Amino acid sequence: SAVISQKPSRDICQRGTSLTIQCQVDSQVTMMFWYRQQPGQSLTLIATANQGSEATYESGFVIDKFPISRPNLTFSTLTVSNMSPEDSSIYLCSVEAWQGKAGELFFGEGSRLTVL
Amino acid sequence: AQKITQTQPGMFVQEKEAVTLDCTYDTSDPSYGLFWYKQPSSGEMIFLIYQGSYDQQNATEGRYSLNFQKARKSANLVISASQLGDSAMYFCAMREGPKRSEKLVFGKGTKLTVNP
Q1: Which of A52, B18, B48, B75 is the most buried if burial means most Cβ atoms within 10 Å?
Q2: Dihedral angle computed from the Cα positions of residues A96, B5, B39 and B60, in that order, rounded to the nearest 10 degrees
């Protein structure tokens, strides 16, 4: 299993500003995933963060808007840049831990952002 | 086309009764995995159960079981003896392919309410 800590847990931000979300894992993991959950919606993968290489972004997400850092095997940050109200969402960090055959995703408690 | 379809936006069940949450999936890959997650109002994502495409038997984890019908491409979650604490959003997800790096795709979720 994996224990994931995310900061901040929630924040209220002004339009046009940027916010960095931190994700700390209690064990070394190769890949970390960043998801977005818009209000009342499902989870959508933003990007996969690998240590030592550039993050891989999903269609519809770009590095300029969501820059990601992955300085080591236990830590990652996601920045939401130049925020607009449409960025109001829960942002979740997750890692994969394989127990037997199942690649279970463990999630942090999420960072709930409200953009005014 | 949607990869994961959850047709029940909301479900209600009486405490101590069983409930089935529907999930159908779409893939042409012979190797895939199916997951169910629970999201309480607090926001964290909790892994419940996993079913691999080559598994011969339906997965079970305590009060959770997965009714896997491969020909119908369905993976319904059955919760037995519902408890008030089961009230939450439930998401079905799929990973296509055998590689650990493949992402999870989530359905839109079903909101389960357990009535006393």
Answers
A1: B75
A2: -70
